[in-house]
Amino acid sequence: MDVSIANLPAFVGTATDDTDLLVIVDVSDTSESPLGTTKRATRAQATSSLTGPVNINAAANGDALVATYSGSGSNVGPRFRLVRTSATARTWEIRVGIDGAYDVADVTAGLSRFTIATNGATSVNGNLMVTAAANVLALTNTAAAAATNVYAIFQRGPNISSYFFANASDDLVIARGDGVASATINRLTGNWTFAAGSNTTFGAITTGAINAGSASITTTGAINAATLTTTGAGTINGNLTVGIADGTSRFIILNSTGGTAGLILQTNGVNQWILARGYVDGSNNFVLANGPLGSTAMSVSIANNNVTFPSEVFGNTYITQGNGTNGVTIGGKTSALRLVKLADNSVGFLATDNGWAEVTARQYNISGNRAMYGTSTFTILTVPDITVDALLMGGNADPSNYYSNTTHWFRNKAGSNIYMQVQQDVTIMTGVAGIQLYLNTAAGPSSVAFARAGVGRWQIGTNIVSVATDFLDFFDSASGLTALRFAPTSRQAVFTANVVTGFAMQVINTNTAPSGLDLFFNGAAPNNVTALFLSCHDNAPQTRCNIRSNGGIENFQANNFNLSDATLKDVGALLDPHVWWDRLAALEIRAFKYLDQTHDDDNIGLIAQQVQAVAPELVDELIAEGRSPILGVYTTDLYHAHIAVTQELQRRILALEAKLA
Question: What residue numbers bound the domain in which 57 lies?
Answer without folding.
Answer: 1-66
